[in-house]
Design brief:
By secondary structure, the protein is mainly alpha-helical. Among the domains are: 323-398, Tetratricopeptide repeat domain (Serine Threonine Protein Phosphatase 5, Tetratricopeptide repeat), CATH 1.25.40.10; 402-495, Alpha Horseshoe (Serine Threonine Protein Phosphatase 5, Tetratricopeptide repeat). The protein has helices spanning 17-57, 65-77, 79-85, 94-101, 106-126, 128-132, 143-146, 154-198, 210-223, 248-268, 277-297, 299-311, 317-327, 331-344, 349-362, 365-381, 385-397, 405-417, 421-434, 439-456, 459-471, 480-493; strands at residues 2-7, 228-235, 238-247. A hairpin with a 2-residue loop joins β2 and β3 (238-247).
Length: 502
Amino acid sequence: MMIPVAHENLRGRRWPWVTIVIIALNFVIFLATNGRIEKELHDAGRVQLHILLLSARYPDAQMTPDVSQMVGAFKREHAEIYKQLASPRRPVDEWDSELQSGKPTDTDINAEMAGLCSKIEQFHNDSLAWNYAFHPYRPTLRSYVTASFLHGGWLHIIFNMWFLWLAGTVLEDAWGRVVYPIFYLVSGVFAFLVHAAVFPDSFVPVVGASGAIAGLMGGFLARFPKTKIKLMWIWAFGLVRAYKLVPAYIILPLWLVIQVFWGALTASQGIEAGVAYWAHIGGFAFGMIGAVILSKTGLESAANKVIESKVSLAVDPRIARAAEAIGSDQPDAAIADLKQLVAEQPDSIEGQELLLKAQEKQKNYAGQKETLATLCRLYVASGENQTAWNYYEQFTNVGGEKLPRGLWMALCRWLESEKSWDRAVMEYQRVAEKNPTERASVQALVAAGRICITKLNRVADAEKLFQAAEASAVPHADQDATIQEGLKLCAAAAPKVGSYDR
């Protein structure tokens, strides 16, 4: 399983307040409604099941028009299952057991059905799930919007809101605080429409913002296809902290293909899965088309000019010009402004990151290495070590070999704090290799040896590292005691010749 954790366009020109408000609103509504909705859906599901069982066994039972419509929809959607409900089978609950074993009169049957119809009517009148969730066989106008703000559990809302943050912040920055929320809501409406078109007779309620968020993902693909997305991989036996940068034009179409596969499978079998795949597909398709329309009609350009006019007082005009030039795929026009800016303000993270984007578009690898090293330094200084490490990995990917030794050692110590022992040893060894005449080389060898003997149980490797530190021509009197202690630990841990354990 792969989960997106970031992308290279997360930093916008101003705070994404609309996205923040949407996320906060979803969580507030979830906390206020989740327990009640779960109970309502459970209770209503049981009543609906009893109605289906009773109507299948006694087709002449009198029903209200609403219930008759519901039963008819189920019969069309699941004809074979409905037939099986009338046959002798294992009871699903005590009520069903009594229904199969008893011999009720027509009056008893109608009375029982009337009671069930009354419960459903009360559910329709008083239930949040009925009034605000989306019901394909009988949708209400408001449910096309309200259903996007209801969620079915903690994992449901957490994943949805994380995807909303990743896709929404950059689109809000591109489209502004008027177009963006309208686009989001309309994406949700279109997603529900597509789901209802595929399952028109379904009375399974649909909730969640995933259709609207799929619209943002489609818009993201159309608007920022080359943006690299960082993925984290999760395996069956636990979390594996492996990250990979993949362009949006690869990972998002792959996600859509998966949705189409499962959507087609469920539709061909006439069943609904626990995930509304066709809502995702509909939202994504609308998002891509809508983003293209916004671009071609000039609405995006107009929104961008408004945003620029509002942030120009707070942002260096060189930043604004450079961002616009990079967005228009004109990196050369941005370079001069950015180089002047970082020369005057070498600690400007925004300036350095824009410079990096321009250099990436130019494929200027030498410039990228210099800028990435600077970004590592700036983020370590600000305490954002994970971001610094991300930039260090980019630094090595473009051929970078050596960071300033103090900065490099700081990253190594951070790896230790994260318990990334193997990678910490590897980086300490690289520090020593690239700085053979510096005191940092001895410190790095000692640190790597300590990790090998105390954390990884790699005795032979630890001994070699301590011996290399001992043999170093660099003065290291302050490290001698630590080196000798390390060698003693290695000797004590080494297997004795001719001995065995049992």
